[in-house]
Amino acid sequence: MANPMHLGLQDAMSPLMEELLYFHDHTLMIIFLISTFVLYTISVLLLTSLYHTNATDVQEMEMIWTILPALILITIALPSLRTLYLMDETTNPCLTIKVIGHQWYWTYEYTDFSQLEFDSYMLPTQDLPQGHFRLLEVDHRMIVPTSSSTRTLITAEDVLHSWAVPSLGIKMDAVPGRLNQTSLTSPNPGVFYGQCSEICGANHSFMPIVVEAVPMQHFQNWLKTNS
Asked: What are the residue boundaries of the Cytochrome oxidase subunit II transmembrane region profile domain, all occurrences included (predicted)?
């Protein structure tokens, strides 16, 4: 999760987030090189009063500054399209969870199991156990198994919401009357925090998201306890 004075992205806790971090670093390096070249060119033009007369009308130079930006855009577009397709890939999920946004809490329905659904409210500060995070902890966490693809169906009952867990690389709008789909996979156990990322009313900042990834054996025991 994010820390005070945290300037970068959160650590990747899923293969999808690793791809997003790679694309971020890839694009940032290209932007850095372009900015350095432009700054150098401007400095040379400002500090040098001499120029070659043949450089004012050179067809080869015009071809270079037309083709080079196109090649740069291609090097950015290809990894971007690959990541977009990976974000929409939901083949053969082992579990389906329906997430419903309300003002101002979340409802989780495990559609593969009968009568397994619960509401998730933020824990008030006075009820917060020692060592837990204020404004981020909930009374019921969303439990998923590790190393398994989980399909998440996201919608809302009243107004627009957005289900976002940065460390898993997930941010999907919850729209009333519409069912959006995404998938999540966590190879390692852990607890991942998120918040509603769409302004949805007075208590928008008080509907956190907590996803807990546990080994398959622990997940099966949790199912037996809550089914």
From this structure: 1-91
Determine which helix (DSSP H) or strand (DSSP E) holds 155, and give its type and residue range: strand 150-156
Sign of torsion, CA 154 217 134 17? negative
For 153-184, the pLDDT digits (tens) are: 999 998 999 999 999 989 999 999 999 999 88
CA distance linking residue 67 with residue 99, whole number of Å: 47
Rounded-to-10 torsion of CA 106, 111, 114, 120? -10
Listed in sequence order, the residues at least 6 apart from 161 whose beta carbon sits closer than 8 Å to its beta carbon are 101, 173, 174, 196, 198, 200, 207
Q: 125 with 172: CB under 8 angstroms? A: no
Decide the pairing of beta strands 105-110 and 117-120: antiparallel
> Distance between alpha carbon 194 and the CA centroid of its chain, in Å?
10
Containing structural domain, residue 128:
95-226
Give the pLDDT score at 131: 84
**pLDDT tens digits along 76-120:** 999 999 888 888 877 788 899 999 999 889 999 998 888 889 999
**Structural domain includes residue 169:** yes
Please give the model's pTM, rounded to 2 decimal places. Answer: 0.82
The rounded distance, in Å, linking the Cα atoms of 14 and 211 is 12
- Token duo for residue 152: 């998440």
In terms of domains, do 36 and 101 share one?
A: no
Residues 99 and 124 placed together within one structural domain of the fold: yes
C-alpha 38, offset from chain centre: 32
